[in-house]
Amino acid sequence: MTPFHLAFPVRDLDETRAFYGEVLGCAIGRSSATWVDFDLFGHQMSAHLRPQATEAARDGKVDGIAVPIPHFGAVLLMDEWERLAARLEARLDIDWLERPMVRFKGEPGEQAILFIRDPSGNALEFKGFRSLEQVFAH
């Protein structure tokens, strides 16, 4: 798999480092006074300081669930997703948009999902699959 790169806005670099580093467990890469890189499950995420950053609106609909657009995250194998979900569920400081749940149960593309917000209001979705062949199943 080749990693992707995503640059995204954040209001505060210190709270962003704490969230992505301590809460999500991302390794922290290079940084400057205005940005910091994270390893999000093998992908390069660059948080750029934008004090005026705003939260994504919950105006998307997926299976009747209001989801924020835009959002980003990672597709994980189920055991890794379950570890992340348990790690987040154990914390009291998570801004949940959708708690862990399974979609398309028993159908092609069955997946576990969860949605959270980071301290800057960026929406993150993490999906879990039993097999990566199911990611694009229909």
UniProtKB/TrEMBL annotation:
SUPFAM superfamilies: Glyoxalase/Bleomycin resistance protein/Dihydroxybiphenyl dioxygenase (SSF54593). Pfam families: Glyoxalase. InterPro entries: Glyas_Bleomycin-R_OHBP_Dase, Glyas_Fos-R_dOase_dom, VOC_core. Residues 2-129 form the VOC domain. PANTHER family: PTHR39434, VOC DOMAIN-CONTAINING PROTEIN (PTHR39434:SF1). This is VOC family protein.
